Protein backbone atom coordinates (compact mmCIF):
# COMPACT_ATOMS: atom_id res chain seq x y z
CA UNK A 1 0.00 0.00 0.00
CA UNK A 2 1.48 3.39 -0.94
CA UNK A 3 2.24 5.98 1.73
CA UNK A 4 -0.78 8.31 1.68
CA UNK A 5 -0.72 11.78 3.25
CA UNK A 6 -3.52 14.29 3.73
CA UNK A 7 -2.41 17.81 2.80
CA UNK A 8 -4.23 21.08 3.44
CA UNK A 9 -4.69 23.63 0.66
CA UNK A 10 -3.21 26.96 1.80
CA UNK A 11 -3.98 28.96 -1.31
CA UNK A 12 -5.40 28.71 -4.83
CA UNK A 13 -3.89 31.07 -7.42
CA UNK A 14 -5.60 31.93 -10.71
CA UNK A 15 -2.66 31.88 -13.15
CA UNK A 16 -4.76 32.32 -16.32
CA UNK A 17 -8.44 31.98 -17.19
CA UNK A 18 -8.08 28.19 -17.36
CA UNK A 19 -5.11 27.42 -15.08
CA UNK A 20 -4.90 27.27 -11.29
CA UNK A 21 -2.00 26.74 -8.92
CA UNK A 22 -2.85 24.80 -5.77
CA UNK A 23 -0.52 25.53 -2.86
CA UNK A 24 -0.26 22.91 -0.09
CA UNK A 25 0.97 23.68 3.41
CA UNK A 26 3.06 20.91 4.96
CA UNK A 27 2.98 20.03 8.63
CA UNK A 28 6.45 19.65 10.20
CA UNK A 29 6.04 15.87 10.39
CA UNK A 30 5.27 15.72 6.63
CA UNK A 31 8.35 17.62 5.48
CA UNK A 32 10.64 14.61 5.14
CA UNK A 33 8.15 12.56 3.11
CA UNK A 34 7.70 15.46 0.69
CA UNK A 35 11.31 16.29 -0.08
CA UNK A 36 11.42 16.52 -3.84
CA UNK A 37 13.61 17.15 -6.84
CA UNK A 38 12.75 19.83 -9.40
CA UNK A 39 10.63 18.33 -12.18
CA UNK A 40 8.86 15.74 -10.02
CA UNK A 41 5.11 15.41 -9.59
CA UNK A 42 2.48 14.66 -6.94
CA UNK A 43 -0.35 12.14 -7.30
CA UNK A 44 -3.66 13.46 -5.96
CA UNK A 45 -6.77 11.51 -5.05
CA UNK A 46 -9.77 13.08 -6.81
CA UNK A 47 -12.94 11.23 -5.90
CA UNK A 48 -12.39 7.59 -6.82
CA UNK A 49 -9.67 8.48 -9.34
CA UNK A 50 -6.05 9.64 -9.16
CA UNK A 51 -4.23 12.26 -11.19
CA UNK A 52 -0.55 13.26 -11.40
CA UNK A 53 0.32 16.96 -11.42
CA UNK A 54 3.82 18.40 -11.68
CA UNK A 55 5.26 20.64 -8.99
CA UNK A 56 5.82 24.21 -10.17
CA UNK A 57 7.40 25.22 -6.88
CA UNK A 58 11.12 24.72 -6.28
CA UNK A 59 12.65 22.99 -3.24
CA UNK A 60 14.49 26.11 -2.06
CA UNK A 61 11.24 28.09 -1.85
CA UNK A 62 10.22 26.62 1.52
CA UNK A 63 7.73 24.14 2.93
CA UNK A 64 4.82 25.04 0.67
CA UNK A 65 4.32 22.79 -2.35
CA UNK A 66 2.63 24.13 -5.49
CA UNK A 67 1.12 22.17 -8.37
CA UNK A 68 -0.29 23.96 -11.40
CA UNK A 69 -3.29 22.53 -13.23
CA UNK A 70 -4.68 23.65 -16.60
CA UNK A 71 -8.29 22.88 -17.45
CA UNK A 72 -8.64 20.47 -20.37
CA UNK A 73 -11.81 19.70 -22.32
CA UNK A 74 -13.45 16.70 -20.71
CA UNK A 75 -10.66 16.45 -18.15
CA UNK A 76 -12.16 14.94 -14.98
CA UNK A 77 -9.32 15.92 -12.63
CA UNK A 78 -8.38 19.30 -14.08
CA UNK A 79 -11.97 20.55 -14.27
CA UNK A 80 -12.78 19.36 -10.75
CA UNK A 81 -9.72 21.11 -9.33
CA UNK A 82 -10.31 24.37 -11.20
CA UNK A 83 -13.99 24.43 -10.21
CA UNK A 84 -13.92 23.12 -6.64
CA UNK A 85 -10.59 23.36 -4.81
CA UNK A 86 -10.53 26.17 -2.26
CA UNK A 87 -8.25 27.29 0.56
CA UNK A 88 -8.71 25.05 3.60
CA UNK A 89 -9.65 21.94 1.61
CA UNK A 90 -7.81 18.69 2.27
CA UNK A 91 -6.51 16.32 -0.39
CA UNK A 92 -4.98 12.84 -0.17
CA UNK A 93 -1.58 12.90 -1.86
CA UNK A 94 1.22 10.43 -2.57
CA UNK A 95 4.85 11.55 -2.03
CA UNK A 96 6.79 13.15 -4.91
CA UNK A 97 7.82 10.92 -7.79
CA UNK A 98 9.28 11.16 -11.28
CA UNK A 99 12.63 11.24 -13.06
CA UNK A 100 12.25 14.42 -15.14
CA UNK A 101 15.02 16.24 -13.31
CA UNK A 102 18.60 17.34 -14.11
CA UNK A 103 21.44 15.38 -12.59
CA UNK A 104 23.64 18.49 -12.57
CA UNK A 105 22.28 22.03 -12.28
CA UNK A 106 25.57 23.51 -13.46
CA UNK A 107 24.78 22.15 -16.94
CA UNK A 108 23.60 24.48 -19.69
CA UNK A 109 19.87 23.79 -20.04
CA UNK A 110 17.60 24.08 -23.08
CA UNK A 111 14.01 23.92 -21.86
CA UNK A 112 10.98 23.44 -24.12
CA UNK A 113 7.48 23.89 -22.71
CA UNK A 114 4.07 23.84 -24.39
CA UNK A 115 1.08 25.17 -22.43
CA UNK A 116 0.88 23.60 -18.98
CA UNK A 117 4.13 21.76 -19.76
CA UNK A 118 5.75 24.81 -18.18
CA UNK A 119 4.89 23.38 -14.74
CA UNK A 120 7.84 21.00 -14.15
CA UNK A 121 10.06 23.15 -16.38
CA UNK A 122 9.44 26.14 -14.09
CA UNK A 123 10.62 24.16 -11.08
CA UNK A 124 13.79 23.14 -12.96
CA UNK A 125 14.40 26.68 -14.20
CA UNK A 126 14.09 28.32 -10.77
CA UNK A 127 16.33 25.73 -9.14
CA UNK A 128 18.98 26.06 -11.85
CA UNK A 129 19.04 29.84 -11.39
CA UNK A 130 19.37 29.44 -7.64
CA UNK A 131 21.80 26.50 -7.39
CA UNK A 132 23.56 26.22 -10.74
CA UNK A 133 25.91 28.26 -12.84
CA UNK A 134 25.05 27.34 -16.43
CA UNK A 135 23.05 29.13 -19.10
CA UNK A 136 19.31 28.52 -19.34
CA UNK A 137 17.22 28.94 -22.50
CA UNK A 138 13.43 28.51 -22.32
CA UNK A 139 11.34 28.15 -25.48
CA UNK A 140 7.71 28.40 -24.39
CA UNK A 141 4.79 27.81 -26.79
CA UNK A 142 1.21 28.88 -26.07
CA UNK A 143 -2.06 29.49 -27.88
CA UNK A 144 -1.99 33.26 -27.26
CA UNK A 145 -0.60 35.83 -24.84
CA UNK A 146 -3.44 35.38 -22.34
CA UNK A 147 -2.70 31.67 -21.96
CA UNK A 148 0.95 32.14 -20.89
CA UNK A 149 1.23 30.66 -17.40
CA UNK A 150 3.79 32.39 -15.11
CA UNK A 151 4.17 35.22 -17.65
CA UNK A 152 5.06 37.92 -15.13
CA UNK A 153 7.30 35.64 -13.05
CA UNK A 154 9.25 34.57 -16.11
CA UNK A 155 9.68 38.17 -17.23
CA UNK A 156 10.96 39.14 -13.79
CA UNK A 157 13.45 36.25 -13.67
CA UNK A 158 14.77 37.05 -17.17
CA UNK A 159 15.19 40.71 -16.22
CA UNK A 160 16.92 39.82 -12.97
CA UNK A 161 19.38 37.31 -14.53
CA UNK A 162 19.81 38.34 -18.20
CA UNK A 163 23.34 36.93 -18.31
CA UNK A 164 22.02 33.42 -17.60
CA UNK A 165 18.35 33.21 -18.62
CA UNK A 166 16.78 33.76 -22.04
CA UNK A 167 13.01 33.28 -22.46
CA UNK A 168 11.65 32.90 -26.02
CA UNK A 169 7.85 32.91 -26.41
CA UNK A 170 6.06 31.27 -29.33
CA UNK A 171 2.40 32.30 -29.74
CA UNK A 172 0.19 30.22 -32.03
CA UNK A 173 -2.13 33.20 -32.52
CA UNK A 174 0.77 35.13 -34.06
CA UNK A 175 3.11 32.53 -35.57
CA UNK A 176 0.96 29.44 -36.01
CA UNK A 177 1.98 26.05 -34.68
CA UNK A 178 5.78 25.62 -34.58
CA UNK A 179 7.15 23.29 -37.24
CA UNK A 180 10.07 20.92 -36.80
CA UNK A 181 12.24 23.13 -39.02
CA UNK A 182 11.36 26.22 -36.99
CA UNK A 183 12.16 24.51 -33.71
CA UNK A 184 15.46 23.32 -35.18
CA UNK A 185 16.34 26.90 -36.05
CA UNK A 186 15.60 28.02 -32.50
CA UNK A 187 17.53 25.13 -30.92
CA UNK A 188 20.57 25.06 -33.23
CA UNK A 189 22.61 27.74 -31.34
CA UNK A 190 22.29 25.65 -28.17
CA UNK A 191 23.48 22.29 -29.45
CA UNK A 192 25.18 20.48 -26.59
CA UNK A 193 22.85 21.83 -23.91
CA UNK A 194 20.93 19.34 -21.75
CA UNK A 195 17.37 19.40 -23.14
CA UNK A 196 14.10 19.00 -21.23
CA UNK A 197 10.75 18.89 -23.06
CA UNK A 198 7.21 18.90 -21.68
CA UNK A 199 3.86 19.73 -23.27
CA UNK A 200 1.05 18.33 -25.44
CA UNK A 201 1.88 15.20 -27.44
CA UNK A 202 2.16 16.92 -30.89
CA UNK A 203 4.49 19.59 -29.46
CA UNK A 204 6.60 16.94 -27.77
CA UNK A 205 6.84 14.86 -30.94
CA UNK A 206 7.83 17.84 -33.09
CA UNK A 207 10.40 19.05 -30.58
CA UNK A 208 11.89 15.61 -30.14
CA UNK A 209 12.23 15.21 -33.90
CA UNK A 210 13.92 18.60 -34.21
CA UNK A 211 16.45 17.85 -31.48
CA UNK A 212 17.22 14.35 -32.76
CA UNK A 213 17.89 15.72 -36.24
CA UNK A 214 20.31 18.20 -34.66
CA UNK A 215 22.23 15.34 -33.09
CA UNK A 216 20.96 15.38 -29.52
CA UNK A 217 21.86 12.11 -27.82
CA UNK A 218 19.15 10.17 -25.99
CA UNK A 219 20.96 10.70 -22.68
CA UNK A 220 20.79 14.48 -23.07
CA UNK A 221 17.15 14.61 -24.15
CA UNK A 222 14.54 14.27 -21.41
CA UNK A 223 10.78 14.06 -22.01
CA UNK A 224 7.88 14.34 -19.56
CA UNK A 225 4.48 13.16 -20.80
CA UNK A 226 1.15 13.92 -19.16
CA UNK A 227 -1.10 10.84 -19.03
CA UNK A 228 -4.41 10.37 -17.17
CA UNK A 229 -4.16 7.37 -14.87
CA UNK A 230 -6.58 4.55 -15.56
CA UNK A 231 -5.99 2.74 -12.27
CA UNK A 232 -6.02 3.94 -8.69
CA UNK A 233 -2.65 3.87 -6.89
CA UNK A 234 -4.43 4.69 -3.63
CA UNK A 235 -6.04 1.24 -3.64
CA UNK A 236 -4.40 -1.81 -2.13
CA UNK A 237 -2.53 -3.84 -4.72
CA UNK A 238 -3.84 -7.41 -5.15
CA UNK A 239 -1.51 -10.17 -3.97
CA UNK A 240 0.72 -11.69 -6.62
CA UNK A 241 0.30 -15.39 -7.43
CA UNK A 242 2.76 -17.75 -5.82
CA UNK A 243 5.20 -19.32 -8.26
CA UNK A 244 8.09 -21.67 -7.63
CA UNK A 245 10.26 -20.58 -10.59
CA UNK A 246 12.65 -17.70 -9.92
CA UNK A 247 15.16 -15.45 -11.70
CA UNK A 248 18.45 -14.32 -10.21
CA UNK A 249 18.07 -10.57 -9.69
CA UNK A 250 20.76 -7.96 -9.04
CA UNK A 251 19.60 -4.42 -8.21
CA UNK A 252 21.61 -1.21 -7.88
CA UNK A 253 19.49 1.30 -5.93
CA UNK A 254 20.57 4.40 -3.97
CA UNK A 255 24.22 3.41 -4.20
CA UNK A 256 23.63 -0.06 -2.73
CA UNK A 257 23.64 -3.46 -4.43
CA UNK A 258 21.13 -6.21 -3.67
CA UNK A 259 20.74 -9.78 -4.90
CA UNK A 260 17.52 -11.81 -4.74
CA UNK A 261 15.66 -14.78 -6.19
CA UNK A 262 12.84 -13.04 -8.11
CA UNK A 263 9.60 -15.05 -8.63
CA UNK A 264 8.91 -15.31 -12.34
CA UNK A 265 5.29 -14.14 -12.15
CA UNK A 266 5.78 -11.20 -9.78
CA UNK A 267 6.23 -7.67 -11.09
CA UNK A 268 9.60 -6.14 -10.33
CA UNK A 269 8.28 -3.18 -8.35
CA UNK A 270 5.99 -5.30 -6.18
CA UNK A 271 8.86 -7.68 -5.44
CA UNK A 272 11.27 -4.89 -4.47
CA UNK A 273 8.69 -3.28 -2.20
CA UNK A 274 7.99 -6.67 -0.58
CA UNK A 275 11.74 -6.90 0.13
CA UNK A 276 11.67 -3.55 1.90
CA UNK A 277 13.53 -1.56 -0.78
CA UNK A 278 12.59 2.08 -1.29
CA UNK A 279 12.04 1.73 -5.04
CA UNK A 280 10.38 4.79 -6.61
CA UNK A 281 6.87 4.55 -8.01
CA UNK A 282 3.55 6.32 -8.30
CA UNK A 283 0.76 5.00 -10.55
CA UNK A 284 1.65 1.26 -10.69
CA UNK A 285 -0.29 1.09 -13.97
CA UNK A 286 2.45 1.69 -16.58
CA UNK A 287 1.10 5.18 -17.17
CA UNK A 288 3.84 7.34 -15.63
CA UNK A 289 7.62 7.16 -15.54
CA UNK A 290 8.13 7.30 -11.77
CA UNK A 291 9.27 3.65 -11.52
CA UNK A 292 11.55 3.69 -14.58
CA UNK A 293 14.82 1.78 -14.30
CA UNK A 294 17.45 0.40 -16.68
CA UNK A 295 18.01 -3.26 -17.56
CA UNK A 296 21.79 -3.70 -17.50
CA UNK A 297 21.70 -7.39 -18.43
CA UNK A 298 19.06 -10.03 -18.99
CA UNK A 299 15.59 -9.47 -20.35
CA UNK A 300 12.15 -8.58 -19.01
CA UNK A 301 8.66 -8.24 -20.45
CA UNK A 302 6.50 -5.17 -19.80
CA UNK A 303 2.84 -6.08 -19.37
CA UNK A 304 1.71 -2.51 -20.02
CA UNK A 305 3.51 0.61 -21.23
CA UNK A 306 1.80 3.90 -22.03
CA UNK A 307 4.71 6.27 -21.42
CA UNK A 308 8.03 4.96 -22.75
CA UNK A 309 8.83 5.28 -26.44
CA UNK A 310 10.97 3.11 -28.71
CA UNK A 311 14.11 5.13 -27.94
CA UNK A 312 13.62 4.59 -24.19
CA UNK A 313 13.20 0.86 -24.69
CA UNK A 314 16.25 0.70 -26.97
CA UNK A 315 18.25 2.27 -24.14
CA UNK A 316 17.11 -0.50 -21.79
CA UNK A 317 14.64 1.63 -19.87
CA UNK A 318 11.63 -0.26 -18.48
CA UNK A 319 8.79 0.34 -16.03
CA UNK A 320 9.38 -1.69 -12.88
CA UNK A 321 5.68 -1.74 -12.04
CA UNK A 322 4.95 -3.71 -15.24
CA UNK A 323 8.10 -5.83 -15.68
CA UNK A 324 8.35 -9.58 -15.23
CA UNK A 325 11.52 -11.60 -15.98
CA UNK A 326 12.13 -13.57 -19.16
CA UNK A 327 15.70 -14.79 -18.54
CA UNK A 328 17.37 -16.72 -15.72
CA UNK A 329 19.35 -13.68 -14.58
CA UNK A 330 18.49 -9.95 -14.68
CA UNK A 331 20.53 -6.95 -13.55
CA UNK A 332 18.71 -3.65 -12.90
CA UNK A 333 20.02 -0.17 -12.22
CA UNK A 334 18.10 2.85 -10.89
CA UNK A 335 19.75 6.03 -12.21
Automatic annotation (TrEMBL):
Domain of life: Bacteria
Residues covered by the 2Fe-2S ferredoxin-type domain: 247-335
CDD domains assigned to the protein according to its UniProt record, in alphabetical order: fer2, PA_degradation_oxidoreductase_like
Keywords of the record: 2Fe-2S, FAD, Flavoprotein, Iron, Iron-sulfur, Metal-binding, Oxidoreductase
GO MF, any single term: oxidoreductase activity
InterPro entries to which the protein is assigned, alphabetical: 2Fe-2S_ferredoxin-like_sf (IPR036010), 2Fe-2S_ferredoxin-type (IPR001041), 2Fe2S_fd_BS (IPR006058), Beta-grasp_dom_sf (IPR012675), Cbr1-like_FAD-bd_dom (IPR008333), FAD-bd_FR_type (IPR017927), Flavoprot_Pyr_Nucl_cyt_Rdtase (IPR001709), FNR_nucleotide-bd (IPR039261)
Cofactor requirement: FAD
Domain FAD-binding FR-type: from-to ranges: 2-103
Protein name: Ferredoxin--NADP reductase
Natural source organism: Amycolatopsis alkalitolerans
Native organism taxonomy: Bacteria, Bacillati, Actinomycetota, Actinomycetes, Pseudonocardiales
Amino acid sequence: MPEIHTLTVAEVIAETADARSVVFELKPEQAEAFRYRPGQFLTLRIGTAARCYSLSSAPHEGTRLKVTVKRTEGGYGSNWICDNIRSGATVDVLPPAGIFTPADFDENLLLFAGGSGITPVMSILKTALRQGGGRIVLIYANRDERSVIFREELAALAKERPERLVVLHWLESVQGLPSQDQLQTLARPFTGFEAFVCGPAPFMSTTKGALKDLGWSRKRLHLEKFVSLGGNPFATAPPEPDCGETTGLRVDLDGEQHEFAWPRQQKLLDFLLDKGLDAPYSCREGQCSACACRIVSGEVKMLNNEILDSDDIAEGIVLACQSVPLTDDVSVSYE
